[in-house]
Amino acid sequence: MAAYDFNSDMSSIVLNNIDNVATMLCDVKAGETITYTLEGKPQTLVVKDDIRFGHKVALRPIPKGERILKYGESIGAASEFIDRGEHVHVHNIEGIRGRGDAHTQKEVKNS
Amino acid sequence: MTIIKGYKRPDGTVGIRNHVLLMPTVICSNQVVNRIEQQVSGTVAIPHQHGCSQVGKDKERTHQVLVGMGKNPNVGAVLIISLGCEVMNAEQIRDEIKETGKPVIWLDIQDEGGTIKTIQKGIEAAKELVTQVQNAHRVDIDLSELNVGVKCGGSDATSGLCSNPSLGKASDLIVAENGTIVMGETTEIIGAEHILAEKAVSAKVLTKLYDCIRNFEAEIDRMGVDMRGGNPSPGNIEGGLSTIEEKSLGCISKAGTSPLQGVIEYAEPINGNGFYFMDSPGNDIECVSGMAAAGVHLVCFTTGVGTPTGNPIIPVIKITGNERTAKRMEDNIDIDTSAVLQGKETLEQAGKRIFDEIVSVASGSLTKAEILGHQEFSINRIGISL
To answer: pLDDT tens digits, residue range B361-374?
Structure first.
């Protein structure tokens, strides 16, 4: 996992340059603009949902079935299309591992 | 070289606490040990649900946990209370603990003639054992003797962002002084095992690590369920963790960057220095109890949403990266690393604070869980009740 620096001026953090989600460092309301650092450059993004501290936001559009990347690693797959700025959580992503109900793996791309 | 103040045991091992352990071999003896504990200061009881109607590996696991708790060098003496007709073999438990050279007394409720007589005799025995362990005094001990468990529970997104990586820095400082780090929770390396596997010192260790994961996932398949909801738990999900993979990737940083020297079974004695993985459930109390039985001296426990977890014989240091939790559950949290998230402290600085707390607790300072009397104990089961 790549190293990352916390910057107290940013409202969210991206843990690896290949990630497609950021983690909120504060609560945010739909329509508000958040900030983060990607590849050393400050970025902004307007969020589409209310998102709480510690929860994730999509940095770009993510098609259904595509891997969600955090820490530069797969944390699961999108169970529906997720637009940039949307809250990313249990309602729109699912785990690939520990799935005794195992219907998801067939749907996941690149696996 | 860092020095801690601990107790030298007759077998050469080192303890950081000096408990007299009151051990029921079976659930039927719980009331008797509880009453003895109430009467005699300096004793600690480990009531549990098991000890009978068990066979095979499940029975062996309970036996090993009980023996391991007795052998843990934080225990100066042991009083065993059996019922008399249970599956656990009290005589064998006594003999195995006695190999350490510490005083062990065994009383049997059926032999003594019931609850009152056993409590009466048990109080006298416990008082005698407490008197004996008073002869032990803290002496200078090299930090390399210390086995530190690393565990997380009640995780949220801050666990992976700062409390676990901060603890990882402390783990590296411990291993740099030739100390030992034990990480458990097979459940919570699922999805991150490839990162841990890269640290394995041999193909044998790597294979054993993957076998743990495979066996666990096979059990989930057998049950036909999605882990989510059980792990990550409702609280983890509330805290922002969406899948077991996300939780695991945040979990593994707490062990630091050291090579993985070995993979041990639940409650298997630790036999070496450096970083070890213990095949164990994510369940907080079962995992910490398994670490105590394996010979861990203290546990560093990170939490996001907050938990009061302690253990009867090993101190549990509670660490959070969530500022709100640090304030709201101030009586349970020993170390707040949330300044890292605010950019006001580096992971290295937070890790050094944790390291300093480990040294202080190992030398006798009480954790908040100890001050509040948290003594949670639970034995992992792997078989059916007969």
So the answer is: 999 999 999 999 99
